[in-house]
Write a structure and sequence with these properties.
Layout: H1 2-27, H2 47-58, H3 63-69, H4 78-90, H5 95-121, H6 131-142, H7 152-189, E1 196-197, E2 203-208, E3 220-229, E4 234-237, E5 246-249, H8 255-261, E6 269-274, E7 294-303
Antiparallel strand pairs: 1-2, 2-6, 3-4, 3-5, 3-7, 6-7
Helix pairs in contact: 1-4, 1-5
C-alpha cells in the first residue's frame, strides 16, 4: 500500500521532471556529458542523512517502468534524464523556465492523449480530425485569436454539435437495423396476453407474484437477475458475481429497471422487456450494441434497511368458536 502511494506521488513529480528534460533539450543546445558541471556529493554522516538518503531511493520504486512505458524514455539515456532532473531542481524559481516546462507538459498530454481520443471519436464518420489544424486551433485559442471563429465558446459549440451529428449518423448506419429488430420484437411480444405493457413502453410478465413491500426509487434493494439480448444471448447475471443477491439503488440503474422495481413487491420474480430508450439508448456497453432492446429475469429479494411487513397470521379454523345452534323451545305440557 505504501509503495502504491509513493508511486502515485512519484508519477506526478516525474511528469514535471520528464517534461523539463525535454524543455531544456529543445531550448538549449545539447550538453555533452563531459560538459556537465561536477556535482558536489554530500557525505552520509548522520542518522537524518541516512533516513533522507533511504527516502530518496525509496521514491524511485516504480520509476523505471513508468519512464519506459508511460514516458517513452530509453533507459540507455538515464544520464540525460538525471541531468534534466537536476536542471529542473536548479530552476524552480525561474518563472520563464516553469512556463516553458509547463508548455511541454501540456503538449505531451495533448499529443499522447487528447488528440488520439478525439480522432478516435470521429473514426468512421464523415469528418476527420486533421492534426495540423487541431494544433493551430489549440494555439490560436491560447492567443485569443478569433479570426476563424468569433469566440472560443462558439468554436466549442460547433465542435460538440458536429460530433453529436456525426456519431448519430454513424450509429444510424451501423445500428439502425438493431433498433428496428428490437421494436419488432417488442411489438410481437406485446401480443402475449400474459405480458403487461406500460405507457413508457416497458413490458413485463409476472413469473412469481410477491406479497412483500414495494421499494421506493430512493431505496437500495437486493436482487437476483439474468440479462439477455433479444436473440437469447446472456450478457450478464447476478450468478456471475457470486451466490449472494446483488445490491443496487433504484435511482442508479437503467430507467426500465427503476420503473419495474418500483412496482414489484418483495418476493416477486418478473421478466422485463425493455425498449432501448429505457435501457442504454445509443450507448454501447460490451455485448450490448446501441439501440438494443433487452430482456431481464429479475427477482426482488429484499429492501435493504427496511423491516419486512409482517404477514397476517394464518386462520386456524379449529380455533374459531362456532355460533351455538339455537334449539327449538319445547312446548310445555298442559
Amino acid at each position: 500500500m505504501k509503495h502504491t502511494l509513493y508511486l502515485l506521488a512519484l508519477i506526478l513529480v516525474m511528469s514535471a521532471s520528464f517534461n523539463s528534460v525535454s524543455a531544456q533539450s529543445k531550448k538549449k543546445k545539447k550538453v555533452k556529458p563531459e560538459e556537465t558541471p561536477a556535482v558536489v556529493v554530500k557525505p552520509v554522516t548522520t542518522r537524518s542523512d541516512s533516513v533522507s538518503y533511504a527516502a530518496g531511493m525509496n521514491y524511485t520504486i516504480g520509476l523505471i517502468p513508468y519512464l519506459t512505458r508511460q514516458a517513452g524514455v530509453d533507459t540507455t539515456k538515464m544520464e540525460d534524464f538525471i541531468r534534466g532532473f537536476r536542471e529542473y531542481l536548479a530552476n524552480t524559481s525561474d518563472e520563464t523556465f516553469k512556463a516553458y516546462a509547463a508548455g511541454l507538459d501540456i503538449a505531451a498530454q495533448v499529443n499522447n492523449r487528447m488528440l488520439p481520443d478525439v480522432q478516435n471519436r470521429f473514426q468512421g464518420t464523415q469528418d476527420v480530425i486533421d492534426t495540423e489544424m487541431f494544433y493551430r486551433g489549440f494555439i490560436d485559442a491560447l492567443h485569443n485569436d478569433t479570426t476563424v471563429f468569433k469566440t472560443i465558446d462558439g468554436a466549442g459549440a460547433f465542435f460538440q454539435a458536429t460530433l453529436a451529428e456525426d456519431i448519430e449518423l454513424k450509429n444510424e448506419k451501423l445500428y439502425g437495423p438493431n433498433r428496428e429488430a428490437g421494436r419488432a420484437f417488442l411489438a410481437e411480444n406485446a401480443k402475449d396476453t400474459t405480458v403487461k405493457v406500460l405507457p413508457s413502453g416497458l413490458q413485463y410478465k409476472i413469473l412469481t407474484a410477491g406479497t412483500g413491500d414495494i421499494p421506493k426509487p430512493t431505496e437500495t434493494v437486493k436482487v437476483k437477475y439474468e440479462g439477455r439480448l433479444i436473440d437469447g444471448t446472456v450478457f450478464d447475471s447476478s450468478s456471475r458475481h457470486g451466490d449472494a443477491p446483488v445490491s443496487l439503488r433504484l435511482n442508479q440503474v437503467i430507467k426500465g429497471w427503476t420503473e419495474a422495481l418500483s412496482l414489484m413487491p418483495v418476493g416477486s420474480k418478473w421478466t422485463l422487456y425493455i425498449p432501448y430508450e429505457l435501457a442504454y439508448g445509443e450507448q454501447e456497453q460490451g455485448q450490448i450494441k446501441p439501440f438494443s432492446a433487452l430482456v431481464f429475469d429479475v427477482e426482488l429479494v429484499e429492501i435493504e434497511g427496511r423491516t419486512p411487513t409482517a404477514a397476517p397470521a394464518p386462520t386456524n379454523n379449529a380455533a374459531v368458536k362456532k355460533n351455538p345452534v339455537k334449539k327449538a323451545k319445547k312446548k310445555k305440557r298442559k
